[in-house]
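Escalated from tier 1: flavin-adenine dinucleotide holo job.
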Amino acid sequence: MKFDVIVIGGGSAGYVAGSVIARNGKSVAVIEKEKFGGVCVRSGCVPSIFLYDVSFFLSRLTEIGNYKGLSIKVDPDDIFASRNNLVEYLSEAGKKLVENSGGATFLGEAKINGSIIEVEGEKLEYDNLIIASGSSPSLPRIKGVENGLTEDQAVNLNHIPKELIVVGGGFAGTEIAQFYARLGSTVTLVTKGRILKDVSDDARTIVRDSLEWDGVTVRENCEPVYQDRELLKTTCGEFRGEVVYATGRRPNFPTGLESLHIEANCNGIKVDKSMRTSNPKVWAIGDVVDKERKVAHSAMMEGYISSLSILGRDVRVDYTVVPQVVYTDPQVAVVGRPREVKRVSKFPLGASTRAIIHGIKEGYVKLGVDDEGKICYGEVVSQYAEEIINIIALAIKAQMKAEDLALLPLVHPSVSEGVSNAAKALFNLDVDVFKDSNGA
Ligand SMILES: Cc1cc2nc3c(=O)[nH]c(=O)nc-3n(C[C@H](O)[C@H](O)[C@H](O)COP(=O)(O)OP(=O)(O)OC[C@H]3O[C@@H](n4cnc5c(N)ncnc54)[C@H](O)[C@@H]3O)c2cc1C
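Tier 2 regenerated the structure:
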């Protein structure tokens, strides 16, 4: 059987690419070895944010209710069954979307043999190949590590661990530590350097305080030495409990990749701006690519870029406006080019009318402008950071001047008007903020 395009992997990157190719009248097959949806749907964003939501409601609804004069009592019910149903629904949707667009789907492991792709004994040929095979957890090389859980497994547990040790203070590890603590686990978070090393000190301090408020014991500058069932020996002491390793990921290279003679290294496959590899018939997208921020929305963007490029369009990937969100409470979101920042402004959400109505006390919107006065960076710490950061992403992409943003009448009262208030601060127009006696 021959297809115009074969896509290996039915995750965030693969289902987008397959659907776009099919909608444009080309024959396409998307091959998935487990279930459609990939990590984001099955063991990443979706189950993780579902548990984040549950833990948020459990921990904060009573408090928010009290603030608003309501008496609310929240108890956990069948949270894991609800999560499993949602994951199954979205996974099935990924497959159906490809088929609805006119694409063929195959279940089984794709093995590459030059211009032939083998799946479950069938031999498929292609004109163009897209590799969207994603990534898998990368575990530390310590004795007994096989007794622990990966981050993918941790978000799919069907019980609340009594005691949990999370190794790795990056995005996933910090999120897992907080939501299980809020669900009732006694959590220790152990990390090599500092937690959330890629975010600013301002944001890290707020998240750290929040973790401590939730009862998470944070042990920084600490590394695991060995695991003996539920005992983890580390450089900063011994801890007991179920152990989760959230210690990074490695690309999934399909069997036979070497037969394509494409350039790759241990971080992934090398591509140009249209996601094409060093082999002109082969594209690579998503977590399997050698790039910095491996998130679902960049994987999806690359799905569009690669498929449009195969369809003959001159489109290029732009990584300068890929927001990243840490789903802790409060959330931390960043976007843009921090190295180009010449001036910074910050609007505290404690001065936002809508935030005050909500009962949000902490958090801020921070903006960075470049030497031409254009917005080039944004950082938001807030319950709504995941939404607010998208506005800043748009402003950066549109090369918006800070002054134009300052005078933009965003909805009042809304938390997101903090974006234009942060821009106002650059021109001493942030009239909602109390100044100290020096006017500073
Ligand atoms: C705990 C956790 C939380 C996360 N939270 C977020 C978040 O909130 N927001 C965000 O943007 N990102 C998040 N991510 C990252 C996000 O999940 C990934 O960036 C995204 O899933 C990458 O998509 P992909 O299509 O490249 O790869 P994947 O989702 O890994 O999909 C690849 C697919 O290819 C299949 N496959 C592999 N090899 C073969 C083969 N040989 N034959 C056939 N099929 C094959 C796999 O089974 C898989 O289904 C999170 C990740 C984790 C682990």
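The chain has a mean pLDDT of 97.
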